[in-house]
Amino acid sequence: MVIASVYNGTDTPAGWAAYYLDHPASLPGRPSGPLREPPAACSYLRHLVLEVGGFPQDMRAGEDTVVNLELWGRGHQAWRAREVELIHHNRCTTPARLLRHHFVRGRAMGRILLDEHQRAALVLRRRAWTAVGVPALLRRARTIQRAVAAWGSEDDRAQLDRVRGLILLALVASMAGAWFELLRAPVGRRRPDAPGRLAGFRRVAGWLTGGLGDPGDPGDPDDPGGSDARCRSPSGGRRPAQPG
Predict the structure, then answer these.
(1) Which one has a higher pLDDT value, 60 or 95?
(2) How far apart are CA 237 and CA 232, in angstroms?
(3) Would you state the pLDDT for residue 226?
(4) Is 173 inside a domain boundary?
C-alpha cells in the first residue's frame, strides 16, 4: 500500500475543508517513509486486493477502509511516497455538500462497527464513545492541526484558519452519521452477512481520526471520494501552484 502527495483540486472553502479532513497524512511536505498505521487513501497491488475478496460491493463509503485494514491485519506494510503527486478533485464544493458527504461517511463507519460488535456493547461501553464520539472528533481536529503545522505550507496554514469552522461542522456530521447507524440497529449479534474481518475498536477509531496519531507517527481518514471524487497527476510531474 502506497500513499502519495495529494494536492487540492477543489478551490472553494468547502473543498479546502474536505481536503484537510481527507488527506492530512498526504500533505506534500511530508517526507517519504514507512507508515505505522494502516493508510486510508492509497494505491495497491491488484492481486493483494483480490486476495482479500476485493472491495465490499454493498458499501457506499468506507469500502477501501475495509480492504486497507484487512491487508494491514494480514501483515502487509504501507509506504509514504512523497515523489508521487496527485491532484484530488471532490464534489464538496459547497458547505451543504460537505456536510452531506461526511454524514454519509459517518454512516459507513457505523455500519463497519456494527459488522464487528453488538449494538449494546457499542452504545454502552466507553470505548464506543471514544471511537465515534466527541473524543474522536476532538482528536481528529487536533490531528489536522498538527499535520498542517508540520507538513503544510504557509498557504495551507492560512487556508486552514479560513475553513476551520467548516471542518468542525463536517466532523460533527460524521459523528452524527455514525451514531445514526448505531442507534437505529436492533440489539443483538452482528449481522449474519458481516465479513468479520476488522480488528476492533483501535483500528476503526484510527480510521475516524485520520489514521494519524501525530505528525511523527505516520498514517490518514480514508479517501471519502468514492464515486464522488477523482484524481489526476500534476501535468509534467510539476507541483501545482497553491492558491494563497
Answers:
(1) 95
(2) 11
(3) 38
(4) yes
Assigned domain for 123 exists? yes
Out of 110-119, 186-195, 234-243, give the one with best mean pLDDT. 110-119
Residue 242 in any domain: the answer is no
- Decide if 244 is inside a domain: no
The count of structural domains within the chain is 1
Q: 113 CB contacts (<8 Å, ≥6 apart)? A: 122, 128, 131, 132, 178, 181, 182, 201, 204
Report the distance separating Cα 9 and Cα 3, nearest Å: 17
What is the predicted pLDDT for the residue at 229? 46
> Residue 164 sits in which domain range?
2-235
For the chain, report the end-to-end CA distance as a whole number of angstroms. Answer: 32
Distance CA 198, CA 202 (A): 10
